[in-house]
Fold this sequence. Notes:
single chain; Rpn family recombination-promoting nuclease/putative transposase; RpnA
Amino acid sequence: MGKPRRKRRYTAAEKAAALQKFEQATLSNDYLFFRVMQQKAALLPTLQRVLPELGIVKICQVVVQRHLKATWQSKELKLDIFAEDQAGNQFNVEMQVANEHNLIQRSLAYFAGMANNQLDQGVKYRDLKPIYVIFFTRFDPLGYQHQFERCRIMAGEHQPDRLLNFIYLDVTAPIAQVNPALQHLCEFIETGKVAPNDPFILKLEQLQAKAKMNSEWRDEAMKINLREQDIEYRIEKGIAQGIEQGIEQGVVQGTNETTLKMIRAMRDDGLAKAQIVRLVAQSRQISEAEAQRYYQMAVAG
Length: 301
């Protein structure tokens, strides 16, 4: 085994830059998103706008970063926001920044984990409550140029409840395809634009500002941003070394091998696949699809 990497000490300027990134973030920042949405005052109106037909009047339970694991051998799932309303409907709400081209698969996994958790509590199959997996995204979710996508499966002819519901909402859509209230929410999430005559968006702005002032969350966000900055630096430095080696050898293999090493290092550091792919794409100035291929090569190797 190689020697463990020393923990780098960050300068005051680096810490200030990392903190400023959080202070300037909108709700499209996944960390800020779940910190705001964990509050019922933000989550309830959000769900009411996304799913007005449910008539949600109360959120009875909110769990942040809920971990679901069927068996000790199975993959552990982590839900950013888990919630349940007065009718027993269950919701998973996520902010997805990078397109990993696996939204349907992830949604199925989250649904399966939530359904299995209901069964663990002694619920019979026929009594499973409807589950809603909701992704706010910063990209066209399924590639159809639809701002709002919905996939659902009915429980049966005599049970009209929609048992399985996947909802994808692109907050970056150039043309609004949703009602004004929901569009106000999308615009605030992506750009921070405040609709002055929308009381909920005004309240959401206050909740966001308050979240940014929470000392514990500021410290945690700064650490996350510093970690990303550190990894970006290591990628850029490693790629530069790889290019130099490649030039000397007359090949580009050095760049590729260095990229794979950086990906493995980021996985060892515990970064999520989406973060790794985004950082590699940005640092190497390649498409996310190509960065995905590097990721798969690193995992396979």
